[in-house]
TrEMBL record:
It comes from marine metagenome. Residues 8-99 form the ABM domain. It holds the Pfam family ABM. This is ABM domain-containing protein. InterPro entries: ABM_dom (IPR007138), Dimeric_a/b-barrel (IPR011008). The lineage of its organism: unclassified sequences, metagenomes, ecological metagenomes.
Length: 125
């Protein structure tokens, strides 16, 4: 991923009935996560992992290069297979959102100081 590039971030949670089911979902989806990263153009990150503080929950993080890549993912067999797998295991609740990011910058400046402001952008105020 390049600094300053347009990206789409998908972030969310998926809840299951218990820790055991959540762990099954993480383990059984590993191959689909790998295939999505490897085989789908525009996929920069695709992570469905255990929430360290909620034993029933998976944290979702995806990073896509653009809308056509995300649209192709929604048509891809990896997406359909992941949806089928998670549904079969029994999703109790889910909250997922997509974010279009038109500006990205490093968190740390040249002195390794974390910065909340967008300090390298020409549009920075």
């Amino acid at each position: 991923m390049c600094q300053g590039c347009f990206v789409i971030i998908i972030a969310g949670t998926i809840d299951f009935k218990d820790n055991e089911t959540r762990d099954l979902a993480v383990d059984q989806s590993r191959a689909l996560q790998e295939a999505t990263r490897r085989d789908e153009a525009g996929c920069e990150a695709y992570y469905f992992g255990p929430d360290p503080f909620d034993g029933h929950r998976i944290q979702v993080y995806e990073l896509w290069a653009d809308e056509p890549s995300l649209d192709a993912h929604f048509q891809h067999r990896n997406y359909r297979s992941m949806l089928a797998l998670l549904s079969e295991l029994g999703i109790v609740a889910t909250t997922t959102a997509k974010f279009r990011c038109d500006l990205s910058e490093p968190v740390y400046d040249e002195t390794f100081t974390p910065r909340a402001d967008f300090f390298t952008s020409q549009n920075a105020e």
